[in-house]
Design a protein that fits this description.
The chain has seven helices and 15 strands. It is of the alpha/beta class and about 220 residues long. It is globular, with a radius of gyration of 17 Å. The structure holds ribulose-5-phosphate (5RP).
């Protein structure tokens, strides 16, 4: 079993009959969706909402009942991956481009469980480029504003075209190397007109499950 699968399957054990579940996006969340799919086939009764078109499709293929976000109400648990996790449970997400829906779904969840291999744990966020979702209108203006803030943005590309999110927006990946004050940066970025949201998830994760090289699991619970 690979490390992503180990972490994801541990998280899937938290899901019980009757729960409303948020399904994350990416190669680690993939294993959580597959495990829940198996359990649904064995009789587990859940309702779910997906954080991307890709996860929506995968979940439906497994027969997991997918409910539109505005109809499902408050979620019990969301299971999602991350690109970086710091010691305060703050995250960078959005490597897979789904940060906006991921953040909305996480904000509507009683618990956010993050699953990852141990390489995602960092002392300080920022080596992974921070994704910032930008509306196409005035995108060059917004890009320059990100440059002026010292964020070193680069448009994410899909071949020769600019990458588009499921929401029809662009992603500027900001190569800052180290983020000194992540909570402040999160607010500053989201105050920029033209920015829809950014990949900093501050005080959102409740549980972090990290699978380590030797196959053991670090399961960390946030106390505050
Ligand atoms: O935020 C995400 C997608 O927007 C993913 O959860 C994050 O990029 C981690 O992905 P993976 O599990 O493939 O490493």
């Amino acid at each position: 079993m690979n490390l992503k699968q180990i972490a994801a399957e541990r998280a899937a054990e938290y899901i019980q009959d009757g729960m409303k579940v948020g399904l994350g996006t990416g190669s680690t969340a993939y294993y959580a969706i597959c495990k829940l799919g198996e359990r649904v086939r064995d009789g587990l009764q859940i309702q779910a909402v997906a954080t991307s078109e890709a996860s929506d499709k995968l979940a439906r293929e497994w027969g997991i009942p997918i409910i539109p976000f505005d109809q499902i109400g408050r979620l019990d648990i969301t299971i999602d991956g991350a690109d970086e996790v710091d010691p305060n449970f703050n995250l960078i997400k959005g490597g897979g481009g789904a940060l906006l829906r991921e953040k909305i779904v996480a904000a509507n969840s009683d618990q956010l469980i993050i699953v990852a291999d141990g390489s995602k744990a960092v002392d300080k966020l920022g080596r992974f480029p921070l994704p910032v979702e930008v509306v196409p209108f005035a995108s060059e203006w917004t890009f320059k504003a990100l440059e002026s803030m010292g964020c070193f943005p680069e448009w994410r590309m899909n071949g020769d075209e600019r990458y588009l999110t499921d929401n029809g927006n662009l992603i500027a990946d900001c190569r800052m190397e180290a983020i000194e004050q992540a909570p402040e940066l999160n607010i500053k970025l989201n105050m920029l007109p033209g920015v829809v949201d950014n990949g900093l998830f501050i005080n959102m994760a409740n549980i972090v499950i990290l699978a380590k090289e030797d196959g053991s699991i670090d399961e960390l619970h946030r106390s505050n």
